[in-house]
Design goal:
The complex is a heterodimer. By secondary structure, chain A is of the alpha/beta class. Chain A has nine helices and eleven strands. In chain A, about 35% of the residues lie in helices and about 30% in strands. Chain A is globular, with a radius of gyration of 18 Å. Chain B is built from 14 helices and no strands. In chain B, helix 3 runs antiparallel to helix 13 and helix 4 runs parallel beside helix 6. Chain B is globular, with a radius of gyration of 20 Å. The chains are: A alpha/beta, B mainly alpha.
Chain lengths: ~250, ~325
């Protein structure tokens, strides 16, 4: 089942296309890693797909009404904004906003979704703490939990694991992989190519606004692609759990 | 804590409302005042209670609730605890409208000429903001448009005073700008109430969207919150509240800034809960200040806006100090 489809999606900043005719579909069961150097257009691709940037071309998400879209796709922005010292549980409950009518109190189902999200992100026991008093990595996990609590078939996350410790990076990627196996689809942008190779079912490599390569990690993480797009060399090996990636040096 | 907060705020507001009715230079007894208010017995005391003190107390509630609610809504929308109702330029423009009316003598032509001029000023400001900030702009364009309009209205107000041919009109204008609820009648209540109640009805339902905005504009939009509509509702609602409040009471600062700040820790910092709490808290604070101006210097007509700033500024400094210590 297709959960996201983009057809020649183009996002322009002034005259310069930051996303140039991107075409892809994401189906249930996929954990898509969106990789590429800084400024390659990863964030713009996802924000354009969600209709948050002026764009041309087609995105299946922008054709939905706002509320239907909020029930279909959760978006985790890169900026970790928490404006007020609200309790962690209250913050994660915000993810239930699209499922609650104005003024409606959270039902048992909403509370269960929040508890589940908190447990997934290893935040049980943090419920009543003010979110602004947590460490940066803990705040990042709380915000991921909010996106999980939204309980949507599709999750788009912009660098969700940046700044997390290794244990929670792996746990977060594993949680996304688990959601994908359960029939959802997740698209994450990330810079840790080793984790991307290890956990993603598919990688989309962006370069200068274009989709440079798209496929299983083995076909995308090649010496040629790494040299051309990132300008690095790397050690690539086949391990028992997929491809093993270790960056070595800058080529330029 | 939140559960007990609302009954407490309602009780405090009611108690202050009653106290406001019993405060004034005409020293009537408690029983005499209340029976006159309800039954209309005793000509002089009935007149004082029904025509002077009752509208004054009602206006204190209306103005305070409107300013408290507007402050909480703007702080929630801008995600900044320093936002206050004057920020979008409506109070400055309403004051300009009033000043022009006073300087041209239009204010003396009929009873409600002054507040109506102020409301016209507020309306012009709203239209300007909506044009300047555009339909799709973010919160930054709103602040910038508000600052520009405030500055322009302030400059034009100064110009009107500067070029004033009449020193009496100038003195009257300066005193009016200090803000007061003295000598207001039910005509003022009937003029302001519809705008304020409209404003409350437009702003109070924004709680859900403001809660979502805690996580930023992108996250809120992705949770199904229509930000353009939210902003339009906010501007119109706040303008109705603040424009009407300025029209009948002049410029009263600090309520919209301090009240949400005081109550935020008591509502778990949730913008949606802070809205009604700040409305009640604002009503209580203006009632209290309006009682104080009558008790502190009964003969000198101490202005409400002046007293509010004198109390508000140190309170605000104390809050900043506390915040700094908590953050350190």
């Amino acid at each position: 089942m297709t959960l996201l489809s983009l057809d020649r999606l183009t996002v322009k900043r002034g005259d310069c296309p930051v996303v140039d005719a991107a075409t892809l579909t994401v189906g249930a069961g996929e954990l898509v890693g969106l990789i590429g150097p800084n400024g390659a257009g990863k964030t713009s691709l996802m924000r354009g797909a969600l209709g948050m940037l002026p764009h041309s071309g087609m995105s299946s998400l922008t054709q939905m009404p706002a509320l239907a879209r909020a029930r279909h796709a959760a978006w985790l922005p890169q900026a970790r904004d928490i404006a007020w010292p609200i309790a962690v549980e209250t913050l994660v409950m915000l993810g239930r906003t699209p499922h609650l009518a104005a003024g409606q109190r959270p039902s048992a189902r909403d509370r269960a979704a929040v508890a589940q999200a908190l447990a997934t992100m290893d935040l049980t026991g943090f419920e009543t703490r003010p979110a602004t008093e947590l460490s940066g990595g803990e705040q990042a996990r709380v915000l991921i939990a909010r996106a999980l609590a939204q309980d949507t078939p599709l999750i788009l996350a912009d660098e969700p694991i940046a700044g997390l410790d290794p244990g929670h990076q792996i746990a977060t990627m594993a949680a996304f992989a688990g959601l994908a196996r359960g029939g959802k689809a997740v698209m994450v942008s990330l810079h840790d190519l080793g984790l991307a190779a290890r956990h993603c079912t598919r990688l989309v490599l962006m370069h200068k606004g274009r989709i440079h390569a798209d496929g299983v990690p083995e076909t995308v993480l090649t010496q040629a692609n790494l040299a051309q797009v990132f300008g690095i060399s790397a050690h690539l090996a086949q391990g028992p759990q997929g491809i093993i990636f270790q960056p070595l040096e800058v080529l330029r | 804590m939140t559960r007990a907060l609302f009954p407490v705020l309602v009780l405090v507001t009611l108690a202050l409302f009653a106290l406001s009715l019993l405060t004034g230079p005409a020293g009537f007894g408690l029983r005499e005042s209340l029976s006159a208010l309800v039954t209309g017995q005793g000509e002089a005391v009935t007149l004082v209670m029904r025509e002077i003190r009752l509208p004054r107390a009602i206006l204190a509630v209306l103005v305070g609730a409107s300013l408290g609610l507007s402050g909480a809504a703007l702080q929630g929308y801008l995600r900044n605890p320093l936002a206050e109702p004057g920020l979008i330029g409506v109070s400055g423009s309403a004051a300009l409208g009033a000043v022009i009316a006073m300087q041209t003598g239009f204010a003396a032509s009929f009873a409600l000429a002054l507040p109506l001029s102020a409301l016209t000023g507020a309306l012009v400001a709203v239209l300007l903001i909506l044009v300047l900030a555009g339909p799709r702009g973010g919160s930054l364009t709103l602040i910038l448009a508000g600052i520009a309009i405030s500055a322009l209205a302030g400059a034009l107000t100064s110009l009107a005073l500067n070029l004033s041919p009449n020193p009496f009109a100038t003195a009257e204008t300066v005193f009016w700008m200090m803000g007061s609820l003295a000598d207001r009648s039910f005509a003022h209540v009937w003029l302001a109430a519809p705008f304020m109640i409209l404003g409350w009805a437009v702003v109070l339902p924004l709680g859900r969207g403001l809660d979502a905005l805690t996580l930023g504009e992108d996250a809120a939009a992705a949770m199904g919150i229509g930000l353009s509509r939210l902003r339009l509702q906010l501007v119109v609602g706040v303008a109705a509240c603040v424009g009407a409040a300025t029209a009948v009471a002049g410029a009263i600062g600090f309520v919209g800034l301090v009240v949400p700040h005081l109550l935020r820790p008591l509502v778990g910092a949730r913008p949606s809960v802070l809205l009604p709490a700040s409305a009640l808290g604002g009503a209580a604070m203006v009632l209290l200040a309006d009682i104080a101006v009558r008790l502190v210097l009964p003969e000198r007509d101490l202005k409400l806006g002046v007293l509010m700033a004198i109390i508000g500024a140190p309170l605000f400094l104390h809050l900043i100090y506390k915040t700094r210590r908590a953050g350190a």
